[in-house]
Amino acid sequence: MVLTLAKKYHPYMIDLRRHLHMHPELSMQEFETSKLVQDELTKLGIPFEIIPGSTSVMATIQGAKPGKTIALRADMDALPIRELSDCPYKSQVEGTMHACGHDGHTAALLGAAHILTDLRDQLSGTVKLFFESGEEFGGTIHIAEKEGFLQGIDHCLGIHIWADIPVGRISCSPGARMAGTDLFTLKITGKGAHASTPNQGIDAIVAASSIIMNLQTIVSRELFPQEVGLVTIGKLTAGQRFNAIADEAILEGNLRYFNSALSDEYPVMINRIAENTAAAFRAKSEMIMHTKGTPAVINSEADAAFGQKVISRLFGQECLYDLPPLMAGEDFAIFMEKVGGLFVFVGGGFPHRESAPHHNGHFDIDEDSLRLTAALHAQYAIDYLNAQAK
Ligand SMILES: [Zn+2]
Ligand SMILES: [Zn+2]
Questions:
Q1: Residues 125, 11 share a domain
Q2: Mean pLDDT for the stretch of residues 319-346
Q3: Nearest ligand, CA of residue 103?
Q4: Which of 61, 183, 221, 386 has its CA 20 to 30 A from that of 235?
């Protein structure tokens, strides 16, 4: 039934997705996208609320029978990337495009809203539809939580259409799926002097350069070899003039991990290496910022097994695909940490041509992924609520 309805609403989802693709909006500025979502929900008679300080929409489909509550998530934002392809639905906003497939997520969740409304009689509980703003910018799930919107939700499902997976295949593996990611800043303090008299100064650039090199040994020499970790210095700001010794250097970095304990261990390792390296050059190092970003996305064995059962029954067992974990971050991890849930990748790659990577100007998805995503959202919600009602 779900598959038949997903097919029926497929043209509707394609139209919506192409409209959104032509009119992309950046993170936290999804005003028209959010309005389109609200208009479609209103037409369906689905009540919704706006999450304060964002354009995020939380809608509620009340099933005919009582039961638990599941939330389905679609992110809505586009990226500051110029679209380079010449598809008929090319972005009409110069320098902005849906290069991650979030247009597809929004359209597919609205498709699922139609399917679930048609099947409301079969629902043993409540389905929340969370249209999220600002995902590429750290997301708004933490705001939704602070404002009490996650209260009463028992489980959540997040789906990302993924171009590296061929369309028709779906990855629902247990364990780490996406990395946790933290930010940090080091301030290296030296002493300014004329470039011709380094003996009178303390060169913050030389100390910072050594620190950058030594930090590389955290992953290669300090972590257990089978532990996945990543330490990247993405920005170095130092110096004022070619003929002056720099008195200060600022290093900005990014840390990634699957094991959340590393989030606490990284700063200790970084400070030990940075402070001692700086001291070797008579300079000083201080960590002036360490922010825990989003945690890792981890599927439990039980949730992944349940998801695989739903997918196998819906599309056949052969559709399951093994995608290795990604080092990208995803704030849906916060939702999963708070209420428990599952994260799934639905293939969006073209069968007969190469697919561009996510966040690339040529990015596009095979639109059959919309039908599959909507069907999976709806079927997973129905099956989860039924399983809980037993
Ligand atoms: Zn993205
Ligand atoms: Zn994305």
A1: yes
A2: 97
A3: 2
A4: 221
Domain of residue 314, residue span: 2-177+296-389
Distance 215 CA to ligand 1 centre (A): 27
Q: State whether 248 and 316 are in the same domain.
A: no
Res. 267: pLDDT tops 80: yes
SS (H, E, C) the chain: CHHHHHHHCHHHHHHHHHHHHHCCCECCCCHHHHHHHHHHHHHHCCCEEECCCCCCEEEEEECCEEEEEEEEEEECCEECCCCCCCCCCCCCCCCCECCCCHHHHHHHHHHHHHHHHHCHHHCEEEEEEEEECCHHHCCCHHHHHHCCCCCCCCEEEEEEEEEEEECCCEECCCEEEECEEEEEEEEEECECEECCCHHHCECHHHHHHHHHHHHHHHHHHHCCCCCCEEEEEEEEEECCCCCEECCEEEEEEEEEECCCHHHHHHHHHHHHHHHHHHHHCCCEEEEEEEEECCCCEEECHHHHHHHHHHHHHHHCHHHECCCCCECCCCCHHHHHHHHCEEEEEEEEECCCCCCCCCCCCCCCCCCHHHHHHHHHHHHHHHHHHHHHHC
What pLDDT score does 390 carry? 75
Q: How confident is the model at residue 40 (pLDDT cuts 50, 70, 90)?
A: very high
Cα 109 to Cα 28: distance, rounded to the nearest angstrom: 19
Q: How far is the CA of 157 from the centre of ligand 2 (A)?
A: 15
Mean pLDDT of 260-283: 97
Tokens of 390: 């037993």
163 Cα to the center of ligand 1, angstroms: 11
Could you tell me if 171 and 220 lie in one domain? no
Mean pLDDT of all residues in 76-87: 96
pTM for this prediction: 0.92
CATH code for position 106: 3.40.630.10
CATH number at residue 254: 3.30.70.360
Whether residues 104 and 185 fall in one domain: no
